[in-house]
Amino acid sequence: MSHHKLDTLYLMRLLVAIVRCGSFAAAAAQLGITPSKASKDLRHLEQSLGNTLLSRTTRRVQLTDAGELAYRQADQMIALHEQLLDGLQRRRSALCGELRITAPDLWGEVVLTPVLLRFRADHPEVRIIADFSNTPADLLRDNLHVAFRSTELGSQPYLARPIAVDDLVLCASADYLDRHPPLSEPQDLQQHPLITRCQEYSRHERWTLLAQGREILLEVAGELAFSSKKAIHQAMRQGLGIARLPRYLVAAELAEGVVREVLPDYRPKGTGFYALYTQRRAESALVGHFLDYVIEALTPS
Fold first, then answer.
1. What is the enclosing helix (H) or strand (E) of 230?
2. Are residues 188 and 39 part of one domain?
């Protein structure tokens, strides 16, 4: 193969991928090429620039000073190319391209999937790749456009856009409540079997309830404790006690009346759902339009 046919932008992407993934193999997998091709093409880039960019002595690849410069420039070239495509795309009104998304598994499955499917139906030119899992994502390394997370925002190096509030509800099955003494204040929870979310095999949990704007902190312990919200939901449905669950999981059953809200005047405090994305994605018409779409879909009318 004659070397001048290698596309500069591809070589820039290759360099960036190797640096972010930390290995030729992982970068090759991300770009859909073999590790030996990745290695050969990077050598070609080094020859054409007349500089060694990576020192391959250690287990991890390390940038040389020339490599550091090339990496920063490569990143900017890719960003400029994306902006060019984006600008052209804005002129043709159809959105196209690829959206790579991550979201927590249950929320992604139950809440986000229907929105993604509608978005795709409205924009058939857009490819969607969605990974639902609770492991923290690295937007740069995994080359993601958007990570949806329910999080108390720390000092992440990402831009965050509020998407929705993850509403929680204290609830029990209707037949459980018919068979047990009624509850009128939070203290009454101590007289009932609770189903809690376990972390590191502890059945103890802190529940924060809101009443007229003030917070009530409860230390609770479950007779049953599961790490999975689906399991907690099943146990609650079978009448085994009172649970704290995301409202989206029980909305249909609350409407039917088979599950009832407990202590409706003391609402569990929910967390915010945010879309996290990098500064570079902030420029993207596709990402911006997609987030507007999700927010509109999830905002109660």
1. helix 229-237
2. no
